[in-house]
Write a structure and sequence with these properties.
The complex is a heterodimer of chains A (325) and B (165). Chain A is an alpha+beta fold and 325 residues long. Chain A has 2 domains: 122 residues, no CATH class; 188 residues, Rossmann fold. Chain A contains 8 helices and 19 strands. In chain A, the strands form 3 sheets. A 7-stranded mixed sheet of chain A has the order 2-3-4-8-7-6-5. A 5-stranded mixed barrel of chain A has the order 9-10-17-13-12. In chain A, a hairpin with a 2-residue loop joins strand 5 and strand 6. The termini of chain A are far apart. Chain B is an alpha/beta fold. The radius of gyration of chain B is 17 Å and the shape is globular. About 5% of the residues of chain B have low confidence. The chains are: A alpha+beta (325), B alpha/beta (165).
């Protein structure tokens, strides 16, 4: 395949994207790729607070195999990603650039960009722009953000879909990106599809007309557009108001208990990605954003029984809250 | 109740292998460049030591950080080289990922367990030297772009040994 120069000056096509609160300047040689990224297209900003560059050359020397699992490695300010035989990216965290070469087949694959490359780019470079990725679902109720934390299979996505059927708007189901600007904290989603496990049709009959497939981590799951399948309202952002940590319980029923801000803050600090030494200033800014985030209402939701039990409790709690903010 | 009891996210894994200790350290000269080499693999350290040249220093010092990545046992794939100046990346698939930042004078590499000492000495080391000596900054100064072809020549002679696809 030879040497691929990824110089934006030699890539004639340009597009501007807005993803999770950040502007992304795309340059490429492929109209097909521009179409694959159309989901995030926006007008060029005047003075973007958060921005990065994505330069992609699409080569024509045939398509290679796609790896079952992408391979990532990072050292200092560089992160390498290989997605298959002919798809290679380098993310430069200091210069906020992502440069890569992909085959034609990958350029055409809108799912690759929507579910993988763009979320990865935001996850890797976002931190350097003040975007903090948090493993949480996020919903919006009348402008107030409900963030739901919990380990994999705790039921975040199920609860998020169930609440979206009860009038909440869905911002994200798995990864939420927190940013601060003008003393305001904002939670952003990436409009990735909602991922529900193979037994989800028991709870959501709408899924009976969908087919589960193997997801990136090897799980068999439904990955669906919540707006299309469930008629969910969606939003790209919200203002965090409640931080809820899900915990399954053996006992039937539900308890929503207040949780300490210091403990919550410590948890976020400890679970945040370690950054190389040259990003000490960014790590300090991240701590400030976390400190502001935990000023919101932090709670633990202990529940036993079907997810509707937890949804009942959260619906009542959020809809009954005084939202004069 | 600690939140660590609720989720298992309290200790994020080092998924990118950013913090693999590279405690073996050596200063040497490679092709007129003072190199500070850091690695976690004594065999690679020996190989670079044998590669040392004794010539007057003509370029600013470089840091080489070479991490032996034992998690990757796959053999090398077809080489790919991408340049986004001042960074050049050479990939042989997960088996070998090399990034050179000529502005910061850093050469960073993950060398998989599937690349043995002979292949490292015969193919990878010459490529590292080309990347360092003829990287973008040097090429710009001298008006030469030969460095990328030389690098590709070096690695493309390596037998391709399957993939983890």
């Amino acid at each position: 395949m030879g040497i691929q120069t990824i110089d934006p000056a030699t890539l004639p096509l340009r597009e501007q994207l807005f993803v999770a609160g950040a502007f992304c300047s795309v340059s490429t040689n492929s109209h097909v790729l521009i179409e694959s990224l159309a989901h995030w297209k926006c007008s060029p900003p005047d003075a973007p607070a958060r921005s990065f560059e994505l330069a992609v050359r699409v080569h024509s020397s045939g398509s290679g195999w796609r790896a079952a699992v992408p391979h990532f490695r990072g050292m200092h300010h560089l992160v390498f990603a290989t997605f298959g035989e002919r798809d290679l990216f380098v993310f430069d965290l200091l210069r906020r650039t992502a440069a890569g070469v992909v085959c034609q087949k990958t350029a055409e694959d809108a799912c690759f960009w929507k579910h993988l490359l763009i979320p990865v780019a935001i996850g890797v470079i976002g931190t350097t722009m003040g975007l903090i990725p948090l493993h949480a679902a996020c919903l919006d109720w009348r402008g107030a953000g409900l963030m739901i934390f919990g380990e994999s299979e705790a039921g975040k996505s199920t609860l998020a879909v169930e609440l979206s059927r009860r009038g909440f708007s869905l911002v994200s189901d798995e990864w939420t990106y927190i940013a601060e600007a003008n003393s305001r904290t904002t939670a952003y989603g990436i409009t990735a599809p909602v991922k529900l496990l193979a037994d989800a049709p028991r709870l959501f009959p709408e899924l009976s007309r969908c087919k589960p497939s193997k997801s990136l981590n090897g799980e068999i799951a439904f990955e669906v557009d919540a707006a299309q399948v469930f008629g969910s309202a969606t939003r790209s952002q919200s203002s965090p108001h409640w931080l809820i940590f899900l915990k399954r319980s053996e006992r039937p029923g539900c308890e929503l208990l207040p949780y300490g801000r210091d403990e919550t803050r410590n948890f976020f600090e400890q679970s945040a990605e370690r950054l190389p030494a040259q990003f000490a200033e960014i790590a300090a800014q991240r701590s400030q954003t976390i400190a502001r985030l935990v000023q919101q209402d932090c709670r633990v939701l202990l529940y036993g029984g079907p997810p509707q039990v937890a949804a009942d409790a959260l619906e009542k709690f959020c809809k009954g809250a005084d939202l004069c903010h | 109740m600690p939140l660590s009891a609720i989720t298992n996210l309290a200790q994020p894994p080092d998924l990118l292998k950013r913090f693999v200790p590279a405690l073996l350290e050596m200063r040497l000269q490679v092709g007129g460049v003072d190199v500070l080499m850091q690695t976690n693999d004594s065999l690679m350290l020996d190989a670079v030591r044998d590669f040392e040249t004794d010539s007057p220093t003509v370029q600013q010092a470089f840091v080489w950080k070479l991490v032996r990545d034992e998690e990757v046992q796959a053999g090398p794939s077809e080489p790919m080289v991408i340049q986004r100046e001042p960074v050049v990346v050479v990939s042989l698939g997960p088996a070998c990922l090399i990034g050179v930042d000529s502005e910061r004078r850093e050469l960073l590499a993950f060398i998989g367990g599937g690349i043995d000492d002979r292949a490292f000495r015969s193919f990878i080391l010459p490529a590292l030297r080309h990347l360092m000596e003829y990287g973008p900054a040097a090429a710009n100064a001298g008006g030469s772009r030969l460095y990328d072809e030389k690098t590709l020549d070096a690695v493309s002679q390596m037998p391709i040994g399957g993939s983890d696809a």
